[in-house]
Amino acid sequence: MPIKRKPKVVFIGAGNLAFSLAPAFHNAGFEISQIYSRTRNSAQELASKFLTSYTTKLESIFREADVYVICVKDDAIKKISARLKLPGSLVLHTSGSTPLKSIEKISETIGVLYPLQTFTKAKKISLKKVPVLVEGNSSKSRSAILKLARKLSDSVIPVTSDDRLKLHIAAVFACNFSNHLYTIAEKILKGSSVKFSLLLPLIMETTKRIETNSPANVQTGPAIRDDKKTIRRHLTLLKKTDPKLATLYKLISSEIQRTAAGK
Amino acid sequence: MPIKRKPKVVFIGAGNLAFSLAPAFHNAGFEISQIYSRTRNSAQELASKFLTSYTTKLESIFREADVYVICVKDDAIKKISARLKLPGSLVLHTSGSTPLKSIEKISETIGVLYPLQTFTKAKKISLKKVPVLVEGNSSKSRSAILKLARKLSDSVIPVTSDDRLKLHIAAVFACNFSNHLYTIAEKILKGSSVKFSLLLPLIMETTKRIETNSPANVQTGPAIRDDKKTIRRHLTLLKKTDPKLATLYKLISSEIQRTAAGK
Question: Could you give the ipTM of this predicted complex?
Answer without folding.
Answer: 0.85
